[in-house]
Amino acid sequence: MYTVKRVLMVRGILLLETTAFPFRHFSAPPCLRSPKRNSPYSSVDSERYSSLVKSVMSTRVSSQTPETLHAEDEHIYGPVIKAQTDARIKPRTPKTIHPFLNCEEAGGTEDAESGLPVQIALNRGQGRSSVPSVTRILQQTLSQEQIFYLERWKRRMILELGEEGFRQHSQNLFRQGKRFHSALEEILTSSSSEKDKTISETAEYPADVQGYMESVSHILKDVNAVRAIESTVQHETLNYLGVVDCVARYKGVLCVIDWKTSERAKPFLSNTYDNPIQVAAYAGALNNDVNYKYQVDSGLIVVAYKDGSPAHAHQLSSELMLDFWKTWLLRLEEFTEQRSIQASSASLEN
DNA sequence: GGATCCTTCTTCTTCTTC
Prior knowledge:
Layout: E1 4-10, E2 13-18, E3 24-27, H1 30-33, H2 50-57, H3 66-77, H4 84-89, H5 134-140, H6 144-191, H7 207-220, E4 223-235, E5 240-250, E6 253-261, H8 275-287, E7 298-304, E8 312-316, H9 318-349
Parallel strand pairs: 6-7
Antiparallel strand pairs: 1-2, 2-3, 4-5, 5-6, 7-8
Helix pairs in contact: 6-7, 8-9
The protein binds one DNA strand of 18 nucleotides through helix 5, helix 6 and strand 5.
């Protein structure tokens, strides 16, 4: 159920701000429109406001046009945010469907799984300075709805913690995430030196990471044959790069794995927002990067919790990965369009 | 050595009643 937070009556239309959507329009029910009913308006000084009421109620003569109404709506409620359902009815498709897999590369061989995991460091110097990253592209192509909820969340947090408190809180979340990644990097690198070795559960970790490690221990049991850790991937034709958390077998399936920490439970894939798109982007890049001689068509998002409660693992089948790959291509197209608009406006200024 | 980059996170319903 959605809760109505605010009700406004404008031109015979009820505007409801619900907990789910900022505003929704409904026609006023007859009981609210009918003058016969005892309404709150009955106490209004009708003589004093008669000319205003007449001008509002008159349908034959109106100074308002669709254009002025639109401008007024924009002024009061801000720009219209497209409902999600519209997108479902008319799904957008990328202009060009670039292949997710590289047909020239054969599937991974067992030989590649026996050595140490690959770890290609990010080197921005080698003509890569202008290549955009997965994170940047996703951040710059957030939907209006995502921006709305993120900004609302930030405002609420600042009200609660203050500017400085919020800054520290965010910093703390980032720090915990980084330490968790470092601990995983260490454990996965050392344990992979011996093929299919079970990952140790007895190791000691820093206090702020201990809970997260406990949280993922049941997942780590099913992770083996680690091939890459914190390694740079770059799509050779689509020209973007990123740093993949991990490439390994999970329950026997070779996947791109993304480790996440979260304060809130994320039991469903839909709770992970753009994370699946990020994973598909990394996998697509890896499949089209000469440094990796194998193909990955599946993914895994692991959400770990600080209190040690079991992490949620969301597996992305090859079908799902293809869907998210298409979404990634859309975001990439959007980013490229933004960039070319910025470039052309910059050249006009010069 | 400093600056910059990639990443690390953050969103989608909240309160009442049974």
